[in-house]
Amino acid sequence: MHEIIAILEDDPGRIQAMEKRLKESFPDCSAIFFNNAPDTIAWLKGHLHECLLLSLDHDLGPSWERSGQLFDPGIGRDVVDYLITQLPQCPVILHTSNGDAEIGMEMALKGANWHYERVIPCPSLDAIDSWDWIDSDWADTLKRLIQCRGKNSQNSIDERLKNKCHQADPHTKPSSRMIIVLDDTPESEQLISDRLGEVFPGWSCGFFKNSLELMAWVSRNTPQFNRMSRAKSIVILEHSKKRIDLMRQHLEQIFPEEYVLFFDNAPELLSWLKVHLQKCLLISLDYNLGPSWTRQDKVFDPGNGREVVDYLATQPPRCPLIFHASNKEAEIGMEMELIETQWIFERVTASPDLKWIEKTWLPLVNILLKPIDHNQLTESDIPSSHARWELFNHFALTFNGYESWESVEECVAIGDRCAKDYQRKQILPQSFQELRTALLIARNRWRRCNMEPDDEGMSYIQAIAQRLRDKVRAHHQE
Q: Are residues 74 and 144 located together in one domain of the fold?
């Protein structure tokens, strides 16, 4: 198939410089230029599958006369609005100097899973060297994206066969990563399967030629659907595509059987939580969700993580929370909202380099979702008497007290009773369950106040840890 670089640009000087650079650096690639959005969209409707790469400007100048009539050239966003109705098929460069408009184009492409990158043109178009950015930033980005796509498409037939969605036959059982397609056109089945395989590699895809066939399949698998509807999910509020990709990659490796749901805005997450909060295994929230963007020709405000916390504070605890915000003041504000509640939460400080995801966020997720059974406890799991508070804090989270007692209220009442018994009589409980409950509730009390335990509080926590070590040692000697 002959692949083409398609460019939307109305400035003759830029077009000339781009044509020159393409001929010198990409002599084997064909290029086509458009100076208006309507013609670009009309061409894409028949040739999008041939595009090696798209490069889009935003501002295309005022209307002009064409064929005796006034012609509106539109804007680059018009092309983006068409692209997001299609499956992602090639990378997109946004080479506009209109920063506000570029953000809107980015957000739209991001929401539709298109890969995009921005190149900022030289601000002074009248300067002699105003086209330097084309020979440098633009050409370098173009080369990198084309080379990257070439590597990804090497042995493209084998790769598509490997990555294409696994097609469901009448005996296939539903899965958590499955796409259902109802279409009786043989040609579309192959095309859809290939495209979905590129966007959702490894997912299964069920093709059904008529509604009766689909209904029969659903009927046979009703028990499986019922189990899936009761399954719980790891829910994450995050708008950064890089963070989302890395989080998803790690979670799917460590928790392959769990559902992972990402939301990039607070309103949609709130709507989901109001129906499905009881299905949450864990909720991880960022605070800043980026600027407003355009959705369905209206300005859409993504909100922030505090709006979700405000709702959770009105609900009984269902699962642990992680705040992975880089805005520390906002994160503390989210914690303060939960002081009067029994929600269990912990904090991870996000940083631009993404190392925090693997270094601190993922280990915390692992602690919260993989509790240690009493019979599996070892002395090395329990912090020593002189350990830092952080180690006691995390060890306390290895016990799911709310689930163990089948009641938040019961768990809290037992923890409070243990604390009073120790304060009055220096008495500690005997069972693993009550000891670990006492530690969890003590931990929660100090954590909700965003404070480390005072001397009296730490003495109580250390005494619990020592009693647990003694019990583990005795258990292993039996």
A: yes
Question: Do 167 and 72 fall within a single domain?
Answer: no
Give yes or no for residue 456 having a pLDDT over 80: yes
Domain extent for 431: 373-478
For the stretch 19-28, pLDDT in tens is: 999 998 888 8
DSSP H stretches of helix in 323-454: 328-336, 355-356, 362-369, 389-396, 401-404, 408-425, 432-448
Neighbours of 123 (CB within 10 A): 9
Q: Do 149 and 162 fall into the same domain?
A: no
Looking at residue 373, the DSSP 8-state letter turns out to be P
Residue 71: beta bridge partners? 64
- The 8-class DSSP code of residue 353 comes to T
Give CA 40 to chain center in angstroms: 32
Residues 150 and 162 in one domain: no
What are 343's two structure tokens?
């929600």
Query: Measured between alpha carbons, how far is 433 from 449 in angstroms, rounded to an integer?
Result: 25
Question: Global pTM?
Answer: 0.59
What pLDDT, in 10s, does the model give residues 87-138? 888 999 999 988 888 888 888 888 788 889 999 886 544 544 567 889 888 9
User: Which residue among 92, 120, 154 closes a domain?
Assistant: 154
CA 336-342-343 angle, 5° bins: 70
Return the pLDDT at 166. Answer: 47
